[in-house]
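Supplementary Data S3. Sequence and structure tokens for construct A.
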Amino acid sequence: MEFVNKFISVERHVGSGEQPIYLMDYGGKYVYHTLTSPISSAESPEWSITDSGDKVRVPIFAYKSGKEPDSGLFGYGIQLGIEALELAKPTGHFPHHVVLVLGIECHDLAEAEEGEEAHRVYVGISFAREK
């Protein structure tokens, strides 16, 4: 299984309260199972399926991470992707590749958390399986 990284600036979305969305070209070779709700330990995530059209719509969700954004963002994205796959098992098939859409910006939450190291990171996840 391969991880494909995409990046998006979330700054204007964060300022407006609008959810960031990454539009990925759809080529027709794969069926995409895209996470459409944030991963929470309390609930199973929701998914959408894209198997036709021109674009795959990947919503970006905010998560709190204790990791340094530069060194930990990719690893945190992989951790979320594996957790999502385990929680939902959306396809019944092993994905060909996982698309991780990572927000370019990360926000330091240390001041809001009374000195605790914390960052707000932005991640979207889509699994692709062959048709």
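Construct B, processed identically:
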Amino acid sequence: MGDETPLKIVKEESYAITHSFVCTVAVINGVMVKLNTDGTVSPCAAVTDKPIGMVTVGCKAASERITVRTAFASIVYAESDAGSTCGAELAQSGINTAVTMAKMKTAVATNYVSAVALETVTTGNTFQVGILRHPYLKP
């Protein structure tokens, strides 16, 4: 019958979670940003900065909202097992079975980091956390 050209089927399943943050400076699309302790984001400027995602909708001035495609599998509420600051790496420390909610605490060495605190919280209160797609062992 003649030559057949193989058909390429492109499939994309990004399951990307986007979230809105206030940015400390003007920023363009494609820039990696880090989460600050006050809940704002700013561009990663050092190799030690921990990016939480990439800007998909930038801003022209400081203190404007931007959209970030995060590295999170989901954003949920959790109960603080010990106070944490915004941006802290978190480890799951249990489950509150009364309300079916994970308990989280700031991760220390040898804990598996499974989430990032999206706001500062005191012990026993609920707070927003970004659940990481790929947990890792904190060195």
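The first strand starts at residue 18 and ends at 22. The mean pLDDT is 90.
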